[in-house]
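Putative oxidoreductase, pasting as requested.
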Amino acid sequence: MPGPLLENRVAVVTGAAQGIGYAIAERFLAEGARIVLGDLDSDTVTKAAAALGGPDTAIGVRCDVTNAEDVDALLQAALDTYGGLDVMVNNAGITRDATMRTMTEDQFDQVISVHLKGTWNGTRKAAAIMRERKRGAIVNLSSLSGKVGMIGQTNYSAAKAGIVGLSKAAAKEVAHHGVRINAIQPGLIRTAMTEAMPEKAWAGKMAEIPMGRAGEVDEIASVALFLASDLSSYMTGTVLEVTGGRLM
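Structure tokens follow.
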């Protein structure tokens, strides 16, 4: 029988203190990886790492992904603590939803900065390390909103569409160095954030899903595991929709 899919590998996951990021970290750990969790909230990410087993298997590092020096420190923590960097998951994100008429420049800039610049920082910094080692997998979290656009999300939709273009361009730059870069576009996933939306909005989104249900964070984690592991060894520059068939 083959061993765990990420045995003896080191993975960094941003936005990992809760939700999809935490589920990815948990799944990677179960498959043999050692994890560095990055998050803006220092206390929360420290507690999340402790819940995953503590420093033998997981550490938490405060990281503002819009700050290149913070991202450098996050990746250096992986190198210093576990001796390598094999997988990078750029998952950190925020929402500042508003119609285009009422959205402020600050709300637009914040979302673009965290999602798009943050993913660019994580991708370029991780790729620089991985290319020297001639291997590595980077997984970027986009969104269905980046494919079709959502009302009240001109900032978020623009950022998530940008992540697709960024991932494809970066994948072409580093493929010959043995580094793979792929993206995931989740649809409606059951998290604390989505469950807080108004019932009418939830029902409207559910009506668009052929499978008739919202996705679970574990279902995103499974796809991230596939892209991080050698199961997807001949895939780069791809975008996988995990949407239950919504808006296909």
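Note for the archive: Residues 10-242 form a domain with the Rossmann fold fold (CATH 3.40.50.720).
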